[in-house]
Design a protein that fits this description.
nucleotide-binding, photoreceptor activity, Beta-Lactamase, binds biliverdine IX alpha, 7-stranded antiparallel beta sheet, disordered N terminus, alpha+beta, ATP-binding, 11 helices
C-alpha cells in the first residue's frame, strides 16, 4: 500500500504552516489595522528600515513610512485597482531617506500586510525585456512534452537555479518529474530526477492547498534563521494569517526534507488547471539563491503563459478526441438503425471502438445473451458478476484498473482481464458493455522508498532520508483509463441506451 492523500490525517497534515509566525530573513513585514496602526511586525524591521528601535504595536505606520509611501500602500490595498492578490511595487522609497525597497502588499483578515525587501537596483527593465523572446519560444511547442521541456530550459536560463523540473501530479496525488533541465557541473554532476515519482505524502494536504492559492513560493536560504513576527497574537488572540505572504518562513519538517535532497534554496511555481493542481515548476539550488523580486515577477508571468499554453494544448487534444467520439457514435447509430440486434452488433462495435479506446477484450450482455471477443471472462464468470455491474458500481460508466478491488468475484479471470470500463445499458436489467484490459507489469521508479513516508499510528511522520531511486513492480492492474476515454465511453453508452429505447419503442408499436 502506497501513501495516498486520502490516508488518515498525519501530523504533517496538521502543522499550521500559514500561522508559522515568522518570515524569511531577506525581507521585513508590518501588518497594520484599518486605522493604520501596527498590529504585528517582524523583528528585523528596524534594521531593514534604518530605525533606531523596533516600533511598538499601536504605532501609526505614518510614523514609520513617508507620506508618499503611506499613500502608495493605501492605493495598492484599497484603491480602484486593488485585488485579493498581492500588489507589487518596485523601487519604493519607504522612509523618505532614499532607501529603496521592492514591496508586496496584500490584505489578510482585515489587516494591511506590507512586505518589503531591499530593491534590486536597475534590473527591472532587463527582466521585462526577457519575457517577449521567452513567450515566442514557448509558443512553438505543439505538445505537452515539448512545452514542458522548453519551460524547464527557459526558467533555468532566466533564474539560474541548478535544477529546474516540471512536475506533474497523478490522480493519487503522487507526482512525477516529466521535464528537467540541470546545470552542467563536471566537478559535481547532479543526478537526473527525470522520470522519478514522489509519493503524495511529500506535500501534506494543507501545504498542497496553500500552494494552490499562493502559487509562487520561494525559499531563499534553507539554513537561514527565520525572523519572528511579534506579537504572536493580535488583539483578538489570533495569529497573523500568512497564507498569501511572499516572505513566509518555512516549516522545519520541510527544511529537513529539502536538506535530505541536497537543496539549499528553492522556488516552486504551481500550475493550476480547473482549480486543481495540475503540476508545478520546481527549481532547486544547492546553495542559497534569491532572484530579484522583479525577476521573480517575470518568472511568474512566464509560468502563467506556460499554464495558458498548456491549457490550449490540452483543450485541442480533448477536442480531437471528442471529434473521434462523435464519429464513432454516428457510425454506431447508423449501423444499428439498420435493424441488427444489439448482441449481433458486437463485432461492429468492437471494430469501431478499436481506434478510440485501446482494449484487450470486450463483453456484451444484452437481452440475456452474452457475446465476447478477445481477452474477456467466460460466460459463466461474467453471469456471476452481471447483477453487480450496474448496482454496486453506481449505475453509470465506471472505470477501474483492477475490478477485483470492487468485485472480488472478478479475481477468477483477473489474469486475463483485470481492468474494466463498464457501460451499464439498462437500469434494473443486467445489460452492459464492458471493455477489458489485461494486467500490466509496470515498473515505477520512486525517489526513495515511498512506504517509508507513511507513519504507523502514533508515530511522527518524518521526511525520507534517502532519495535514491527505489523501484517497485506494480502487477495485477491494467493501464489507466484516461478521462478522455471515459468520456468517449459515457457518450457511447448514451447512444446505445437511445438505440435500445428506440428499438423497444418500435417493437411495442409493431405489437400495438
Ligand atoms: C511543502 N513539499 C512542499 C512543497 C513541495 C514539496 C513542492 C510546497 C511548495 C514549497 O514549499 O516549495 C515537495 N518539492 C517537493 C517534491 C519535489 C520538490 C516532491 O521539488 C520533487 C521534485 N514533507 C515530507 C513529509 C512531511 C513534509 C513526510 O516529506 C511532513 C511530515 C512536509 N512539505 C512539508 C511541509 C511543507 C511541504 C510542512 C510546507 C512547507 C512550508 O511552506 O512551510
Amino acid at each position: 500500500n502506497l501513501p495516498h492523500s486520502s490516508d488518515a490525517l498525519t501530523e504533517c497534515d496538521r502543522e499550521p504552516i500559514h500561522h508559522i509566525g515568522a518570515v524569511q530573513n531577506f525581507g521585513g513585514l508590518i501588518a497594520a489595522d484599518r486605522d493604520g496602526r501596527v498590529v504585528h511586525l517582524s523583528v528585523n524591521v528596524a534594521e531593514l528600515l534604518g530605525l533606531e528601535r523596533l516600533p511598538e504595536p499601536g504605532t501609526p505606520i505614518a510614523a514609520i513610512f513617508s507620506a508618499g509611501a503611506c499613500a502608495m500602500i493605501e492605493d495598492a490595498l484599497y484603491g480602484p485597482a486593488a485585488t485579493d492578490l498581492p500588489a507589487r511595487r518596485f523601487g519604493v522609497d519607504l522612509t523618505g531617506e532614499n532607501r529603496l525597497f521592492d514591496c508586496a502588499l496584500h490584505r489578510s483578515d482585515g489587516l494591511s500586510v506590507i512586505e518589503f525587501e531591499p530593491h534590486a537596483r536597475g534590473d527591472f527593465a532587463d527582466h521585462v525585456s526577457l519575457i517577449i523572446p521567452v513567450i515566442a519560444q514557448l509558443e512553438t511547442a505543439t505538445g505537452v512534452a515539448q512545452l514542458c521541456d522548453t519551460a524547464a530550459r527557459l526558467v533555468r536560463q532566466m533564474t539560474g537555479y541548478d535544477r529546474v523540473m516540471v512536475y506533474r501530479f497523478h490522480a493519487d496525488d503522487s507526482g512525477e518529474v516529466i521535464a528537467e533541465d540541470v546545470v552542467d557541473d563536471p566537478a559535481a554532476p547532479l543526478d537526473p530526477y527525470l522520470g522519478l515519482r514522489y509519493p503524495a505524502a511529500d506535500i501534506p494536504k494543507q501545504a498542497r492547498e496553500l500552494f494552490r492559492r499562493n502559487r509562487f513560493r520561494i525559499i531563499a536560504d534553507m539554513d537561514a534563521p527565520s525572523v519572528p513576527i511579534v506579537p504572536e497574537r493580535g488583539p483578538g488572540g489570533e495569529p497573523l494569517d500568512l497564507s498569501m505572504s511572499v516572505l513566509r518562513a518555512h516549516s522545519q519538517i520541510h527544511h529537513v526534507y529539502m536538506r535530505n535532497m541536497g537543496v539549499g534554496a528553492s522556488l516552486s511555481i504551481a500550475i493550476v488547471r480547473h482549480d486543481r493542481l495540475w503540476g508545478m515548476i520546481s527549481c532547486h539550488h544547492r546553495s542559497p539563491r534569491l532572484p530579484a523580486y522583479s525577476l521573480r515577477t517575470v518568472a511568474e508571468l512566464l509560468s502563467q503563459t506556460f499554464s495558458l499554453m498548456l491549457d490550449r494544448i490540452l483543450v485541442a487534444q480533448a477536442e480531437t478526441l471528442r471529434d473521434r467520439a462523435r464519429q464513432l457514435n454516428d457510425r454506431v447509430m447508423l449501423r444499428l438503425s439498420g435493424g441488427v440486434s444489439l448482441s449481433d452488433s458486437l463485432p461492429m462495435i468492437e471494430e469501431l471502438l478499436k481506434g478510440a479506446i485501446a482494449h484487450d477484450g470486450i463483453s456484451l450482455f444484452a437481452a440475456g445473451e452474452y457475446r465476447a471477443a478477445g481477452s474477456a471472462p467466460e460466460e459463466a464468470q461474467f453471469r456471476a458478476l452481471a447483477p453487480m455491474l450496474s448496482t454496486t458500481l453506481g449505475g453509470g460508466t465506471y472505470a477501474t484498473t483492477r475490478l477485483a478491488d470492487q468485485l472480488p468475484g472478478a479475481a477468477t479471470f483477473a489474469g486475463r482481464a483485470t481492468g474494466a470500463l463498464i457501460l451499464p445499458l439498462t437500469r434494473g436489467t443486467r445489460d452492459a458493455l464492458v471493455l477489458w484490459r489485461a494486467p500490466l507489469t509496470r515498473t515505477v521508479t520512486w525517489a526513495g522508498n515511498p512506504a517509508k513516508a507513511v507513519a504507523k499510528p502514533g508515530e511522527l511522520l518524518q521526511p525520507r532520508a534517502s532519495f535514491a531511486a527505489w523501484q517497485q513492480i506494480v502487477a495485477g492492474r491494467s493501464a489507466e483509463w484516461t478521462p478522455e476515454e471515459c468520456e468517449i465511453a459515457a457518450r457511447l453508452r448514451r447512444t446505445l441506451i437511445e438505440v435500445i429505447l428506440r428499438m423497444s419503442e418500435d417493437l411495442s408499436r409493431e405489437r400495438a
